Amino acid sequence: MNIREFINPKELKIIYFTNYINIINYDEIILLTDNKILLLKDKKTITIKGDNLLLNKLLDKEILIHGNIKTIEL
């Protein structure tokens, strides 16, 4: 990995903490409800299911979701 890839990575990263999930380098938000969030990356769907899901942070190609996260499907 070179320094440019470290500073501006292009691959999908999913970081899970208790009641938080941080997703970096997704392409598009398809669906956003309080119990399901669908994201698109390279024509593949990422599904997050849970209860009381809220956007805590939304930046360019980065999203932080808070809530009772039950499943993450790739």
Can you describe this structure in just a few lines?
The chain has one domain (11-73): Immunoglobulin-like, CATH 2.60.40. Helices cover 7% and strands 66% of the residues. It has one helix at 3-7, and strands spanning 13-17, 20-24, 28-32, 36-41, 44-59, 62-73.
Blueprint of the fold:
Elements lengths: L2 H5 L5 E5 L2 E5 L3 E5 L3 E6 L2 E16 L2 E12 L1
Antiparallel strand pairs: 1-2, 2-6, 3-4, 4-5, 5-6
What count of domains describes the coordinates?
1
Characterize the biggest β-sheet.
6 strands, antiparallel
In helices, the fraction of residues equals under 10%
Strand proportion, as a percent range, falls in over 45%
- Spans of at least 5 consecutive residues whose pLDDT stays below 50 are none
Find the structural class using helix and strand composition: mainly beta
CATH architecture: Sandwich
Descriptive notes:
It is globular and about 40 Å long. The protein has one helix spanning 3-7; strands at residues 13-17, 20-24, 28-32, 36-41, 44-59, 62-73. It has a single domain, classed as Immunoglobulin-like (Sandwich). Strands 1-2-6-5-4-3 form a 6-stranded antiparallel beta sheet, with no helix packed on it. It has 1 helix and 6 strands, in the order αββββββ. The protein is mainly β and 74 residues long.
